[in-house]
Each structure stands twice: as structure tokens, then as C-alpha cells.
């Protein structure tokens, strides 16, 4: 399974994006919206307040010590440990992780809604792919960085 996180909105507080299933590159499937901490200049990292670097990461499911449930974990993220995909509504709900939601930011900048619904659906999709013996990969792509 190939996932793509296309970052599209940047502010001093958060980074907005869209998550796609790219398994069939001829027909990308929109899955949900994303929210992360701010993207910073290369080499600049504020612990718990910086988005992960753009790149390609393997995704596995492991038991989260913080949440106490099985969750997607990104492997081998340079300079980061314990990066997960999980629910949450604002950058205050993440410490470098990727939040997902079905409701985009719109007039409420730096916010995603219906997060648990989007997360459960995404978790089931990832879990099903792994049960079929597939590897799951997430590519994070930075779009133009226009500060809002």
C-alpha cells in the first residue's frame, strides 16, 4: 500500500495536508485531511513542535505506550522517534505526529474535525493491507511553502 501526504498549507502554528491512497497511481484516492506541527527550515527542530521531514517512510502497527492501543508508527524518521498517525484536532494534540480528520480547516485555521472517524477508517485500511502481507509506505511531500 502506498500513501501520499501532500502538504499544502503552512502557518507558524501548523501544517495542513491531504492524504491519498496511491496504490493505483492512475487513480489516487483521497482518504482524509491531515494536520501536523509547523514545517521548519532544514536542520531546525523544536522538540514536540516540528513536522517530520519530507520523505518516504514504512508504516507498521505497534502498541502505543501513550494511547494504549495499536496505532500506525512511521519507521526510520530522521531525527524523530515515535512518530504516529493518530486522531486529534489541533497542533496542540501532536508532538510531531500526523493527525487525520474528515473535516478540513476552513475558517478554523490549523484545525481538523471528525478526527476519530477518519482515523478508524484509515487504521482499518492499513491493518487490512498488512494482514494481506503488503508493506505500507507513506511518502510525505512538501508543496509550495506559502506562509499564511
Describe what this molecule looks like in 3D.
The chain is mainly beta and 148 residues long. The chain has one domain. It is 11% helix and 34% strand. It is built from one helix and eight strands, in the order βββββββαβ. It has an eight-stranded mixed β-sheet, covered by helices on one side. The mean pLDDT is 93.
Task: Supply Rg.
Answer: 14 Å
| Low-confidence sequence ranges | none
Give the strand tally.
8
Distance between the termini: 33 Å
Please, how many domains? 1
What would the average pLDDT be, to the nearest integer? 93
- Supply the number of helical segments: 1
Strand portion? 25-35%
How is the topology of this model organized?
Layout: E1 2-10, E2 15-21, E3 29-36, E4 55-63, E5 70-74, E6 85-86, E7 98-101, H1 115-131, E8 136-142
Parallel strand pairs: 1-8, 6-7
Antiparallel strand pairs: 1-2, 2-3, 3-7, 4-5, 4-8
Fill in the keyword field for this structure.
1 helix, 148 residues
Summarize, please.
By secondary structure, this protein is mainly β. 11% of the residues lie in helices and 34% in strands. The protein has one domain (14-127, 136-142).
Amino acid at each position: 500500500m502506498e500513501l501520499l501526504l501532500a502538504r499544502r498549507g503552512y502557518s507558524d502554528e501548523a501544517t495542513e495536508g491531504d492524504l491519498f491512497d496511491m496504490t493505483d497511481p492512475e487513480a489516487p484516492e483521497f482518504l482524509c485531511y491531515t494536520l501536523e506541527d509547523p514545517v521548519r527550515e532544514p536542520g531546525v527542530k523544536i522538540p514536540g513542535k516540528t513536522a517530520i521531514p519530507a520523505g518516504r517512510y514504512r508504516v507498521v502497527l505497534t502498541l502505543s505506550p501513550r494511547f494504549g492501543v495499536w496505532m500506525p508508527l512511521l519507521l526510520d524518521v530522521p531525527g524523530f522517534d515515535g512518530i504516529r498517525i493518530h486522531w486529534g484536532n489541533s497542533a496542540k494534540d501532536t508532538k510531531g505526529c500526523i493527525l487525520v480528520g474528515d473535516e478540513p480547516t476552513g475558517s478554523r485555521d490549523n484545525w481538523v474535525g471528525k478526527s476519530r472517524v477518519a482515523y478508524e477508517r484509515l487504521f482499518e485500511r492499513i491493518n487490512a493491507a498488512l494482514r494481506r502481507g503488503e508493506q505500507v509506505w507513506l511518502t510525505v511531500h512538501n508543496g509550495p511553502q506559502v506562509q499564511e
